[in-house]
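Internal QA ticket QA-208
Title: Verify multi-chain structure generation after dependency bump
Assignee: T.L.

Test input:
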Amino acid sequence: NAGVTQTPKFQVLKTGQSMTLQCAQDMNHEYMSWYRQDPGMGLRLIHYSVGAGITDQGEVPNGYNVSRSTTEDFPLRLLSAAPSQTSVYFCASLPDAGTGPVGTQYFGPGTRLLVL
Amino acid sequence: AQSVTQLDSQVPVFEEAPVELRCNYSSSVSVYLFWYVQYPNQGLQLLLKYLSGSTLVKGINGFEAEFNKSQTSFHLRKPSVHISDTAEYFCAVSEYGGSQGNLIFGKGTKLSVKP
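Actual output:
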């Protein structure tokens, strides 16, 4: 298993440009999510999905869109990038999105985004 | 709403010394508790988690944490650290009965182990 993969590893954008951060997992996990990490802020949840076709907002959703058409993929879209979106973005997945025993959440290696 | 406070942003310590990284949380409902480690330029790796039962939880790499409900704390400890433990450590909670994957993180503690 490759686990959770993210592409690209690093990206530079100009203000107003759009892009999609890719996230894929090959573990057949129901739950996937996106976090952003800023210095001194920890990680904050952007969007999450409890299964294909189901998405919901996290703590900081503004400026980001997501969709979940397959179990494996959960792309994050920036429609019009702003300097405030400069951050490191992590995708994560979890086997079971339900309320049973908590499984181990796996994090991808991250995407560093710089918006000029 | 839940919140997590990591009381120290940086903790310097000498190799083979003990270390404690402090974490307090606030929540109106029961929570699950986690500690994650992030090595430089890498993603997060789960160290340990508290779901229920024994309040002393043992994790990987010799770390352990103790859940104290009355003090709403979940401090991480290691009796003897190594240079390789240098990393950033995050405490996190998720709400019992809610979407278990939605984590609220603390701001992190950078552990620096010196020879």
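Spot checks passed. The two ends of chain A are 36 Å apart (CA to CA).
Status: verified.
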